[in-house]
Specification:
Elements: E1 6-7, E2 18-19, E3 24-28, E4 45-47, E5 80-90, E6 98-101, E7 106-107, E8 109-114, E9 117-122, E10 139-141, E11 155-165, E12 177-178, E13 183-186, H1 187-224, H2 234-257, H3 263-289, H4 298-315, H5 326-358, H6 360-364, H7 366-376, H8 378-383, E14 389-390, E15 397-398, H9 399-429
Parallel strand pairs: 1-5
Antiparallel strand pairs: 2-13, 3-4, 3-5, 5-11, 6-10, 6-13, 7-12, 8-9, 8-11, 14-15
Helix pairs in contact: 1-2, 1-9, 2-3, 3-4, 3-5, 4-5, 7-9
Amino acid sequence: MGCGYIVPNPMIDSYSVVPLNGPWKFHTGDDPRWAAPTFDDSAWENVDLAPPPLGSHDADVGLTGYVPGRTTKGHPGYSGYAWYRISVAITAPRGATLALSGPPDVDDAYQLFFNGHLLGSAGNFSGATPAVYSIQPRIFRLPQSPASASADKPVVSVLAFRVWMDRSSLSSPDAGGIHIAPALGPTRGIESRYDLQWMQTFWGYVVDAILPVLFVLLAIMACALIPFDPSDAAYRWLAVALLLIALIRLNQALFFWFQFESVPAFDFARNVFLDPLNFAAWTMAWRAWFQLRTPKWTPKAVAAFTVLYMAAQFLTRPSLHLALSHPVSAAFHSISSGVRLLFALLLLFIVHQGIRRCGRDARLALPAVLLISIGLFAKDLSALRIPGIWFPYGVGVSRTQFAYAAFVVALFALLLRRLFCFASRSRRLVPEPRPAETL
């Protein structure tokens, strides 16, 4: 039998759940024989999944028990397959139903084997390369406890995780393998753990599901203002920009809650198409809001920036890294950053020109411009080491979510003010009724 760590005979009752912190046996590479319970893993390295100090959590939704990945512990730059094995001595009441909660934070997909038999997976391993989806909490029910299991004679079993890490995950500074230890216990206890992890995952993205509704309502409000001034393009551009940003936030929530969209599909939709169009729409929306007609080259510049940004983003996708040399890939990354900088400079220029032209009316729009820009340039703000997420009540809420929530209020106030201005102007244009002639 393998030499993985043996959990010291826990008595598993209807409430006990044992985190499998390890040490686990770990090895990079891939070999189907490594799933077998009789495989000798004594030469493998030990990996400890025990959590760091109390309160440690992932940087996304606040799941507790997070540990840095293998790239920080002797395997920098490694992607591909790696295996984790552990032997557990199970002491449980005869006929007890046991389950295992899968690790809710893994880079990037995994298969779970119990005594050499595949129990299930996170991700699709049917192709030559696994299809990766968002990692979610999972439950794997173990086979019925054997008849020999008793308080005096534990049954030793081997758990093995075959983990796949995509090259794209190397962009994270602490990527690599399992970040939160799985847990073993009675089905009822594991289900409670599963429900808690799912609830935290749900609340971590519920803001992203609410914001699109508000953005769509604001788009409807903007469209409702078009009849008051059909020649003003600001309301049409605002509606387009609001619908784009609603689609981006909704897609993010659906990606982490469901499994219909793979990581590459999500990456292409977000980074190659939606983000560049979002930059273009908001730049044109603020230009129209400030009623700028000059310089006339602005729309052409926005179109050129958008096409260039799309091309650079496409050529820096992880799926193309094998076709591009590192210098070429780095050059396109620099082009992407440069285009975002050009968009930022153009937006600053538009705001400056708007203040010069409209004065007080333009300054009233500055909070909305600033708040939407925090979301547009989130990557650049993070590169400046500005904190990107906070954990009120243990649930992760991002800087962008805070900014967009405040932006909804600011833009609603701006649109409401325009509506009142139109109403006031309409009253002034309506002629006073003539007094009735006396006989």
